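ARCHIVE CARD
Drawer: 12
Card no.: 0347
Subject: one protein chain, sequence and derived structure
Cross-reference: see card 0346
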Amino acid sequence: MAFVLSRVNKDEETPNNSTGETTMKPQRLFAALALLLVPLLAAGQVSHSVSFPLSDLVLEKKDGFDFVRMKGLSFLEEIGGPMLPVKELNLIIPTGMDVASITIDQTSLQVVPGITRIYPAQPRIPTSANQQQKGFIPPNPTIYGSDTPYPVQPVIATHTGYFDGANRIVHIRICPFQYKPASGGLELLTEISFTANLKPSNQQPVRVKRRTRGCQLLYEESLRALVDNPEAISLYGQSPKETYDDMVEMVQPALPPGPPPYPMPAPYVVITQGYLKSYFQNFINQKASKGIHVHVITLDQIYYYFPNGDQIGPRGIPDHAGSIRQFLSEAYYDGTTWVLLAGDHTVVPVRYGWGEWPPEDVPADLYFSDFNGDWNVDGDNRYGEAYDDNPDYYPEVFVGRLPVTSGQAVLNWTAKVIQYEQNPFPGNPAAVTKVLWSSSDEMRDEPDWVSPVFPSNFTHLFMKEMPSADDPNPTYPTGAQVITEINNSYGFYNVYHHGAPDHYAVRTSGWNGYPKYGVFSYDSYVESGYVSETGNGFDNITTKGSIIYSIACDVGEYDQVGQGRDCMADAYLRLTVGGPAFLGNTREGFVYGSAALHQEFLRQVFNNGHTHIGEAEGISKAVFGDHFLAYSHSLFGDPAMTVWTSAPPLGKAVVMQSGQKQLVSEGSSVAVPKAFGLDQNYPNPFNPVTLIGYQLPLDSYVTLKVYNTLGQEVATLASGFQDAGFKSVTFDASRLPSGVYFYRLHSGTFVQNKKMLLVK
């Protein structure tokens, strides 16, 4: 094993001897003294090891075959070939490199007893309201008649890209099984060590010039969550040329002559038509109260100053969607992190990506978050491989879409965002830890590996199609019963059904057959083959605080509003009721893959601390690595909205009065700090106990952590929701050796580091 010391420039750390504060760039905190603990990589190689516990293996019988599952893994999908579990992972590698080959260094095998014939992979099952059970495709005789181990290559690199412009990532797919079809032998690779051999890449990085410190921390946390070798970030991670305080205006370029005003970048930009701009003032104020600076940019501004469309890729796309991407790529260079596309396809243009299966154009807002990939003019991709999109699945900015056409819809949605961020369920704050699930057909009987990702204090209610997934005459539930249950207040509602743009089927005859019961965008909508009932529309919802995550097909098909009916995402956000965010598919979802993507989204929120919903959605798709779902699954809502992971305090909300934040509680106001702050610990130096103070100007989700000089976390002093006020916490370092330590306060986009010295 080789080790390499990461270089740290002297001018990147400027300590203040009187306070102990340092301006060390956060990413360099993780680079110091990498010689001792960072396992590395001879030049041109990256090595990694993965383990697969036998306890995660689940064996079932399906249509007379052995069906093999493994917790948290997706599947090989060679039609007619053995359907074996696969693990998706991402590795950071040196900027400017690609994978030339992969070498298996070492494996540990364990025989799986009782296997005779593995279930053959079938075409993907869309979660569509029109999907019917297809004919069974038998095993491929060429594969099943041989004892050649399957798959031949257990570790392959599927694609490479750049996260945050310049952090080079390779996506690896690992099948931890070796199957000999003719004899029926199956072995589990309980340990796999491999080396990715590198070569120069033709794909160029995009380097950011500046961004706020809080946003930079968000990208650093996203990178650590994205890659499976975070120890290598200190060696290969890339960062902006400069960072600055969160609430300071961004440095802006000189204004070119002529109308309209130049579209100035900001940490958060809203892109919309001019007639909607004024309706976002309440939204701007809400984000300002959370320390996020927002600029609303009109399409007229973008088209005037970026008239040539998208010039990022070698082919160029001279259309209006291309102009938006070109502007965003330059705004990203100056620090833009979040983007809200405020309008449906009639207001803000759409880019369509070509889905390889099923073959169709997919509205893909991934286009507006990816500035390294090579995209094409819509429609060209169906005429030959030379014209295919070559997207980079790793985001540069985090994008949400608000599919509205009217100012009133903007105001309705903004009111729900404000209420959600203050207290989603006034008088019943614990409702944010309640989770509602509804499921039918194939999704009803899939193993539940998703709900355990929620924290143990969350409670779950499952509304499953009864008495079974395939019963010809099911008795439960109706669409109205689902809506009635939503009104009992749930922080999350997860939709596991076959869907269409304006409804999803909660109860069907047999496998997705008729007659059906459904939940619709509006109570007035009816559909042939569905039982007519009242009370089954989103407009019958009485609460405003639920986040919907849907794996159903087409429920986010906002570009079909010309048919005269709002899709589910449209209605849920436009109505005065409903909720602030909807995560769903613009086209197909899939029975197996969509649930695994949902699982990864929840990991980002609850395990990795990515409570901004746009960050969790973007990174989950990058981790999972599915081409079609990277296009189809989308966030409808504010990408910077913070997801509640614990109950807010009862009866409290943050308001703005004369520019000063105040906490309102039970009818009285109490003065609180005017700004976030982190104090120098006292005493300093210390042995072994010290006190750390900090200030919160509003109720906030807070983390306060301690790191050693290697960037390793050694203590978590605070993690969770806290009331506004002046805070302090004691740090006991009795179990740690003498030396320099850093402590970091993080809340929303605010982040501050300080240094302390332990002397024993």
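Annotation on reverse: The chain has four domains: 44-205, 249-387, 407-636, 672-758. The radius of gyration is 26 Å.
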